[in-house]
Design brief:
Layout lengths: L1 H10 L3 H14 L11 H15 L6 H15 L4
Helix pairs in contact: 1-3, 2-3
Length: 79
């Protein structure tokens, strides 16, 4: 289903779709050529990151802060 959704986003001609493509490309973190600024694999990667970001809403700000504190205990060794 995600592949079909990404294909539709890539094929859409509206301004909103173009903005969504730019957003997903940024989220993907992929490097692309100037001659081909949008690729289907990169859109799919960005779409996956976006879906993962939406899952953050399942946590309260307090839970996220607690998770951040725990993560920082591990990262503190390297920062």
């Amino acid at each position: 289903m995600a592949c079909v959704t990404v294909w539709e986003i890539a094929a859409a001609k509206t301004q909103e779709a173009a903005e969504l493509r730019d957003f997903l490309m940024k989220l993907s973190g992929r490097q692309v050529k100037r001659s081909k600024p949008v690729t289907h694999p990169a859109l799919l990667a960005g779409f996956w990151v976006w879906l993962s970001m939406l899952e953050v809403e399942a946590y309260s700000p307090e839970e996220l802060a607690a998770l951040n504190t725990t993560a920082m205990q591990f990262l503190g060794k390297y920062v």
